[in-house]
Model the fold of this input.
Amino acid sequence: MSEKPKLAVYWGASCGGCEIALLDLHEKLLDLDAAMDFVFCPCLLDSKKKDLEAFSDGSIAVTLFNGALRTEENVEMAHLLRRKSKLLVAFGSCATGGGVPALANFTSREALLTTIYRDNPSVDNPQGIIPQYSTAVAEGMLLLTPLLARVKHLAREVAVDYFVPGCPPEPHQIWRVIETLLSGELPSAGSTIGCGELTVCDECQRTKEEKRITAFRRNYEFYPEPTVCLLEQGLLCMGIATRSGCGAPCTTANMPCTGCYGAPDGEDDQGAKMVAALGSVMDIGDTAHLSEDAIAEKVAAFLESIPDYAGQFYKYTLARSLLGGRAGR
Amino acid sequence: MTAESCFEPKIIGFLCNWCSYAGADKAGGMQVAYPPNVHIIRVMCSGRVDPQFILSAFAKGADGVVILACHPGECHYKEGNCRALQRHRMLVLLLEPFGIAAERCRLDYVSAGEGAKYRRVITEMVESVRKLGPLAVACGE
Done:
């Protein structure tokens, strides 16, 4: 019987990218295998829920939980893994902030299902069939796990020891996290680890000067100059409102940061921080002789070029944002 | 009594120290009556109003938020009110998919001498939010 500490990796509502990022440890995987007993991971190992249930409570040293909570099954597994694990780590953007699945919180569960199964232009569903949680067939009852009313991030449901951001987390940061957790010198509970404390701009090598943006532009409109700050070129690069730690691979590849490491240390809401930052660098031109209404119109016209600020600014953090999603009455 | 007539909107007002707060004071000095629904927070400049403050207000139960700034060109810090305007307009667009109507987040200009305008803006704000009804944000679910 192995004496090595046990490692589990589980996915909620996720794409599998976090597991791929773990595999991107490459030869370090052998070191991981030498240091830990990889006991549960439906994506990579032939391990089932009953195997997990068979472990005694608290016997898994570390669980890396990726994905958001979209279904009741996700919630059940979150509770089970919490019970079985000494350290439960929210791993990746979906587990830390809801990620892309949480963008569904801008609409209702019912509207989501009708859009996906009935109204999308590419859907061929003349009978308008929408999946049901239980369906009677000749052989008996078919059951599907119900969707939650809203997508949650892991900490909304269970106590989380550490948060590791990233979509996916960068492999060099994953290794740092594993080393830290194995070292016995644990960071303070509830902290965000495997990342930096500043913003992506701090790691981005581009030349940055006084920011005065005369128009917001989108990726498809032009090929950005490769050495100058992307924000200064009018792209809504989210590096200014995003936690550092990734090493700025996107801006290095001439793509704007989309914000996957979440809000910087000490900030609650990535979308609000983007609004704060962009509001102070917009240059709408001379307004000295304009009426108040004319100035307001100029600002409104400036902002028209971007169709969906909320979707862009909360791409990874809507579930954990201050408002959480669409308000009711 | 209908639900609507029972509803008293809770509104947070961010007022700049140099113009709008003095404008509110002026309204008080003039002894004009206006609805008591706006809870005033004095800030040094409308440019100091971090959009997180506004989202926090909504998250903690405000039905509306009003930001009152100096008129364009009259900011004590030159361009704080321009920043507030630009942020506000973007924030209104950001709030739309959250189902938070533009009327719930208003920016207007009130100078130190405009007690009457202060009363008008506050009265309009309270009445428009009263029509919209209470706001229930999703956070915490």
